Every structure is written in C-alpha cells, then in structure tokens.
Amino acid sequence: MAKRALAAVLQEIRPPEERPLRLEEMEIPPLEEGAILARVVMAGVCGTDVHILHGHVPIRLPTILGHENVARVEAIGGDRPVLDITGREVRVGDLITWLPKSCMRCYNCTILGDPAKCEHRIGYGGWLPADRHPYLVGGFAEYVWLLPGSDVVILPSGISPEAVVLGDALRIMVHGLERIGGLDYGDVVVIQGCGPVGIMGLLLARDAGASRVIVIGAPASRLALARAFGADETIDITQVPVQERIQRVLELTDGRGADVVLECAGVPAAVAEGLEMVRINGRYLIAGHYGDAGKVPLNPHVINKKQITITGVWSATNRHFLRALTLLRKVHVDPLITHRFTLKEVNEALIAAERQEALKVVIEP
Residue 327 region, left (φ>0) first, then alpha (ψ -120 to 50), else beta? Predict the structure, then answer.
C-alpha cells in the first residue's frame, strides 16, 4: 500500500486566476476497519468548485476539492466485508465512486424524508477538513481515504469514468424533475444554461419524450454540443437580447410559452427572464443556484397571473444517482468531457472551467 500521496490543498479562499491550490505531499493514514484507500482515476471540476473559490459556497478549510470522482480500490481496512449502497461487496481492484453521506436520523432525513437536506451530511471534496484524519478527503489528489460507512458505488460494467463524473449534474436534474412531478410526453421544455447541468436536463427531457427542447445560453461551442445532443433550437445570449429571447420562445410555442422551464444557469437575472417564458399553469425549476450569486428583482404578478408552480432543487440522494445510471447506459456522454488536465495543472483546470472554455473539465492524476 502507498505511504504518501500528492494532493492539491486549498488553504484560503481565492479566485481561480490567483491559483489558490498548492500541491502537497501527505502521509496516507493506516486503514481502520471498513475504510477504503482508492487511487483516483478521474475527478471532475464542477461549477460548485468555482463558486467555492469565490466564497459563494461555505466549506471547511484547509481542504481538498473534488466531489465528482472515480477511483480504483487499492486496499480495504479490516477483515469484514464492505458493501456498496446496492449491497455488493467492494473488492480491491473495483472501480468506484462515492456519494454524500446522510445521517438518516435528523429532522430533515426522518420527518421530512429528504436526505438531500440532511443536517449532518458528510461530503467529500470541500466539506471535510484536510488538516485532520483522514486528510485525503477530496478527488484533487492521487489517493482518497474513504471513511468506514461511506456511500460507495461499484461502477457497473459499460459505464465509463467520464460518464460518472458527469453524473453529479445528472443526479441533480433527476432530483429536480422528480420535484416538479416529471415531464409529460409531448411537453415543450426550455433550458436556461448549457453547461453540464443544462445538458443533463436536455438529455432527460429528450428521454422523457419532450416534443421540443429549446436551450438558451453561451458560448457558441456549448450550444453546438447542445444541438448535437438533441436540442431542437438554441438561442445565444451573447447575440440575442433578453426581450428578443422571450419573444423567440413565445413564437416557438404558438404564443403560449413552455410547459416547463429549467433554470440551469446560476445567474439570478435568468429567473425573472425564465418566468416570462412559462405558459399558464406551467412549471419552473431552479436548479442552477447552488452558490449564492445574489438577488434579482422580479414581478410576482407574472407568477400569480400565469399560476406558475416554482420549485427549487438542492443536491440529490443515492436513489437519484442510481436512477441516473439508467440514462448513462443509454447515452454516450463522453464527448461532453472537453478538456483534461493533470493534477499538477489543477489551477489551470479551474481557470478553464471558470472561463467556460470547456463544457466539462476533468483532472486525471
């Protein structure tokens, strides 16, 4: 078993262009009963990581970022079998990912029945400190040390690491569509934002039988990928002003507006704009605001007049990830990984993600 590992440690909150992550060599603690040591194969750079570096998402410092990960098991502590969340025994050599751990005892888990809002949730990649045991607590490292009882998933055959690091965005959208009651066959869907979350919304809408999917966003390269993955119409926000965007959606929907609008942009102004695009008795899902990007004025009369149902979604649960695997078996999403970096290039990876030079950035240690 390896004794030491390189990790990109975040000591203080600073934006990506200031290159805040520093490579450090860390000792790998001995494994206790039920713990797993795994060598990282691939770690996704999420929009949340960028929000973290701008102070929009609270975390515990110092830490190791990287919460969209695939790794290969190198060692398992103790003699007792360790099971993944589906009941399969984890073995050395298995390719795995891991999900946030909910306590299943707090008010939100038990009374509300919503583990995604667990009051004591344990999340790797920013929510565990790297200056105390087990130290290797995120995917931006050569190895990760998983605590006993972690929610591990053995990857099914036929699903690539690339697909799994996109699964974080996908499981959020699976959760979001569940919260709005799903899509009806033939629905017209507007998606605001063409990053990973928006593209996953597009794939789910297509899979659910949407009659038309309209994607609004930028840059042009991302919109081209949206068209390649089934968008019927795309609208470039850098070329088309707000009122013209609204008018274009109305024209494409016979003046009624969309049945469902999915906000996946994380831009406050998108919410007020999107509400104008919803039809009477339509539904609006806010999925892009994991970080606090600020406030925006909106007119409640629009919501009242059109009787719009508005729902937010926050993270996801294990069942949403397992359901997401169904889509990943059917759709080849690997082309959505547009940029790859080594661990030594971790700061460049974050800069590329912030500048939207890529759709999805991954780090391959």
Answer: alpha
